[in-house]
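Input sequence (125 aa), recorded before submission:
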Amino acid sequence: MDPTSTHQEHALRLFQIFEKGTSDALEGVLALFSPEAKFYMWGPHKAPMNGHKEMREGFEGMFAQLKDFRYRVTNMAENGSILIIERVESFRFLEKHDVEVSLVSVSELGFGSKIVSWTDYKNFK
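Predicted structure, token format:
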């Protein structure tokens, strides 16, 4: 899917960096977010990662557990500063379990074209 806005470019760049799955790529991820951004990686029912420090720690932990990360965006919708992304992610968890999960993400772009919030909604079956 080709991006049509800065917000969509940021989101697709984030997924491309996750595909690399290396901690050295984290600075590229953090550059997309404002320093005080909130990232709800496990959904809105869990506490978010607040700011770059917590996001770095959370993503490093994710990279340690997930291998062979791939994504497929099925739909994107944008209204003002809000971007909604439907996608399918697949990965190997703890080098034992092949997982495929459907997700919807809602993100908000703020000052300086930085992402200020990101919430993943997952459908685990």
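Checked by second reader. The radius of gyration is 14 Å.
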